[in-house]
Amino acid sequence: MSEEENVTTAEEVLVYLITQIVEDKEAIEIDIEESDTKVSMVARVAPDDMGRVIGKRGRVAHAIRTLVGAAAAKDGVEVEVDFDG
Amino acid sequence: MTEEMTLEDQGQAVVDFLDGLVKEYEASGKARVVEIDEDRIEVTIDGSDLGFLIGPGGDTLMALHEVTKTVLQRKAGSGPRARLRLDVAGYREFRRSELAKYVEEMAAKVRDEGIEIALEPMSAADRKVVHDTVNEIDDVGTISVGDDPRRRVVLVPSGE
Known about the structure:
The structure holds 2 protein chains of 2 kinds.
Chain A: H1 2-21, E1 29-34, E2 39-44, H2 50-54, H3 59-74, E3 79-84
Parallel strand pairs in A: 2-3
Antiparallel strand pairs in A: 1-2
Chain B: H1 7-24, E1 28-37, E2 40-48, H2 59-76, E3 83-88, H3 91-113, E4 117-118, H4 124-135, E5 140-145, E6 152-157
Helix pairs in contact in B: 1-2, 3-4
């Protein structure tokens, strides 16, 4: 039960960050898959917004992963984040 | 969104973004603008238990800086682009003073022993701390060698 709450914190941080960066907020979709050891999140955004969330040389995507990871680590969960346009 | 924003507005936008993020983390902290000059906005987050926002070696703080810059660019539209300096719980200030202390020791060695000392590769911000620190010390100068991200400062004896 508590693990689900933890995932929610990481997910909320991910949604918040993406919402602040993209143009088309309505197109944001987050898919979540949980296994025993890890939570995988795939963030889908409008194709035109892909460049914004990835950034030059993937720097923004990397930074988002780190910040979502910090939310998960706080609660002892490991999270993987991918992006899809 | 594309209307021009003043630097004050941009500072406020950064503060709003960071306060919102801290809330999502369910952490207790508050962002505030420390200083604004003609091309720089300095913002800090203070609160308790904010170490998770700094991370090992400041990694998370660097990520926070990158994302905040991106959000600011989105919001500022065509307005004047300020450089952003971001700190969490005094971490950068602490690192800066630790680095300055270390550089003073190395500079004393260079001066007393007449040798050159190459420091490890550093970010542009850290190299500036080195240059500024050595500037205040007689008989020691700095040169920079190599290219980013391997660019480093060498402390050299100067003046006769």
